[in-house]
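From the thread on structure requests for the teaching lab: each student submitted one protein with a one-line request. Submission from student K.M.:

"Model Spheroidene monooxygenase from Micromonospora siamensis, tokens only."
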Amino acid sequence: MSEPAVPDLVTLHVWRIPRTTVPRALARMATLPPRLRRLPGVRFAKLLGTGTGTGFGPGDADLTRWAALVVWDSAAAADRFDDSPVGRSWARIARSSARVDLRPVTSRGEWSGRRPFGDPPGGRVAGPVLALTRARLRPRRAATFWRAIPPVAAALHGAPGLLARFGVGEAPLGWQGTVSVWRDPADLVAFAYRHPEHRAAITRTPTEGWYAEELFARFEVRDVVGDRTVLGWVAEGDQVTGKEHA
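Reply posted by the TA:
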């Protein structure tokens, strides 16, 4: 079987909504995923709930922030998202939003049985990078996973070079992930492979058997458009162009 092509563009859309519109957001999560996948030019897409990323349990959920990750055939198709029925539907209830344009650099593992970012060749990145982790937990191993996460999350909070971070999930329990944005690849590598808490979690993963399916991908951040506070931006001074909404 041939390897899936590496997409030129992946977009991450994030919306912040008023708490009064949470029921409408939940309805969108139930009805819009098929419509998102059927948009012209979409190869792969997921609507996602978000959280702080500190615990990955129900108490970590942020019901006022929602996201979509979309893999595109072309930049032209991606530029039509805001005018699509899905984009307009979220815009009607959002009080602020942001879009992150991404180029896949590395990817390993699967998501829903697919390899949505292909097999990127790696290469040098001079500037911010986004790390995406996603896993489907084995129900019998979920409790030990949740107990192992708080030390890693606490360490991530103060990691040098961290620009933004939040949790993502396709369901309240068992389908968890993280998004983190770093000033440059060196900062990401320093945390992922040299920080003791994170190294310990990596070492435990194969022996604990936490995941039924997992994916880790790294992207070059090409642009950030919109309100970066929606992403939980914690630092400035990077090389990304941020454009505030009017």
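TA comment: The chain is about 30% helix and 35% strand. The longest strand covers residues 211-226.
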